[in-house]
Amino acid sequence: MGLTGLFLISFLIVHVGVNACIFVNDQGEAYNTAAHFMSHNWVLRIVEIGLFAGLLVHILQGLLLWKQNSGARPINYKVNAANENSRWYSRSMGLLGTLLLFFLIIHISKFFIDTKIALYSGDQPHNLFEEMKEEFSKWWVVVIYLIGVISLFWHLLHGFQSAFQTFGINHKKYTPIIKSIGIFYCVVVCLLFALMPIAFYLKWLE
Amino acid sequence: MEHYHMNLTLKVWKQKNSNDAGKLETYQVKDISSEMSFLEMFDVLNEQLITNGKDPIAFDHDCREGICGMCSMHINGRAHGPWDKNTTCQLHMRAFKDGDTIVVEPWRSKAFPVIKDLMVDRSAFDRIIQAGGYISVNTGNAVDANAIPIDKKDADDAFMAASCIGCGACVATCKNSSAMLFVSAKVSQLALLPQGAPEKESRVLNMVAQMDKEGFGNCTNTYACEAECPKGISVANIARMNREYLKASLTTED
Ligand code: SF4
Ligand code: FES
User: Fold this and answer.
1) Does the N-terminal or the C-terminal CB of chain B have fewer CB atoms within 10 Å?
2) What number is the average pLDDT over the span A124-137?
């Protein structure tokens, strides 16, 4: 869980980095160049396979955990004051992960598959920037994306520091630093992701 | 501290034996002193039940001074009740006020089956200890206690880990019924000391294997265990055990 999680976390840095190119505000030129580079580089094609494999393993591990852990307490408490001893999002990783999976299915079918078809059929590379502009002019697409980003935020807030604990890294000096980096990472990455649909919807970008 | 008396409504889990379905029963207790311990309040209730020819409530207890780990009640949704770093036997009635309703349930975990009412079978913990919670000691003359130099910090950490009383509150409170805090405390107290070195690898592998076999869930780092542990055992021990486990599984030959 931790290993695949950290791998996916590192991918998100690249993803958000490319996305951030839209804020250059040059009619998407910088963004399209970056996206084009990402999709026309064979090294990255191989990394992409690894990414999907990592995602799949992460999902399978999550399902296995859910199955084993839900069997470990056949009879539940009538009264349980769980909020007194732990954070709701640390206890809701399965739920948040499922929301994320639904979001990913929508997300991939919207932007990823089209791009791939265009790539392999040898058509004109299509203008992802224009496509986003169009998609994000619909309010419900923006809402779905914001729900996705919010789920991502809570999922990462627990996941980031949790991965280190799983690897056995819990240190008086370093753990507070790791936790701060985790919070910083979550806030920055999720804000940038959330700003995209909002910026298009509010026509900040032309 | 002000001394007062209170009347309470108790909803307590009653279950004849491990096959019975069990249910919450409601009881009234009157004139409970704020200076009583929670278990003394249960003694009063049981006296009352016995006098009336009813079945008293079975609950575990032994030392009643917070050191043996036998007491084990889930009180108003929290293992060992509302006070932090505290056992049920050391919980006092001043934590409650007149008119309160208190719900008391047994530890819930597949690995801790209910024996009767609030008593659960925690022998799974004993089997985990048997799987590796020991050190080999040479027979012959006793060696000088100070012959082996030990870093003060290691000694302190080992001592901290050794303060686990094996009560099972960590399992009871964990949403996954994971026993990682208990097992990691038992692994740590020996792994930190030179005396524990000979079985370092086999210990962690065997104890974790036994833990899984007993049907405890997996740790997802919610840290609820640390928050509810009466002895304040730190989740840093879990990280240490993860380290030991990783090292041992990479280096052993079988
Ligand atoms: S780690 Fe804490 S909660 Fe768990 S058994 Fe030991 S003393 Fe009890
Ligand atoms: S009865 Fe011994 S710790 Fe509570």
Assistant:
1) C
2) 81
